[in-house]
């Protein structure tokens, strides 16, 4: 049954302050800025808001911190001093990785206005062995600009910082993981705006509070923001949600079918029981999504179910390919 609430608590309806209405759910959209937040700060926010600990990210590993820190120094399309239509890119490329160490190189790439590479020179090598970072130049110091030296010298501090703090991507993953369990449906072809069923209202409010708290840890001018508006239960809104559901499930089914067909046709990749069951679980997740919305909308998503049946048939075919 649809939860009934006083409209005056959520929306303004002209001349109807005391009218009872039913709500289907919420439209939700957000902007996630880059942040710098420690695990202790994140845990405190989770406790204050009441977000379950299962959504906390894994502790930061030195290897992840190393990759994040070195990636931060990349930049592109910097005009090359004294030369017209020539640009310098600073890139980071991984050379090797094993259980003992990771080796990455900082590369200076010079390109022309059409992005054609004119030169490609490794200028420094960074090695993470256990938790120790080592850096050394790969060209004569006279060939390295002051700016490049500053970049290389900044990496140890960036690494130490990355070991202690999560960034915007980590936060975005937290929000996506929480939102995923609310069975959202994208209501825009390009994404970015989601419908969330009304039964998840408490989670929506927690997410908005979480976003407000994260704004205090932003390291850019853009702040993390999240907004929602209630969706009144009318036939027009039901049609909107149903169409969005069909589009999302059909698109998701086709994508899964194509991935599985490619796996089967390749022939050179070993298909494991675990891999096949992963795809079966993905199809089941789409089926559960459809079932929830069919119950809510009291209608059948016929086209979506047809595509899901095709996806499940392909998943079972993938399962048949599992090697003994």
Radius of gyration, taken over Cα atoms and rounded to an integer in Å: 25 Å
How do the helices and strands follow one another from N- to C-terminus? EEEHHEEEEEHEHEEHEHHH
Categorize the overall geometry. Answer: globular
Low-confidence stretches: 1-17
Average pLDDT for all residues: 88
Biggest sheet character: 5 strands, antiparallel
Number of strands: 12
- How many helical elements? 8
Structural class: alpha+beta
Please estimate the helix content.
Answer: 40-55%
- The N- to C-terminal Cα distance equals 48 Å
- DSSP strand (E) fraction? 25-35%
What does this structure look like?
Helices cover 44% and strands 25% of the residues. The chain has helices spanning 39-49, 62-71, 146-164, 168-180, 201-214, 235-266, 273-297, 302-320, and strands at 4-6, 20-31, 37-38, 75-79, 86-97, 101-112, 117-129, 132-137, 165-166, 185-186, 193-197, 225-232.
Descriptors for this entry?
five-stranded antiparallel β-sheet, disordered N terminus, 12 strands, alpha+beta, 324 residues, globular, 8 helices
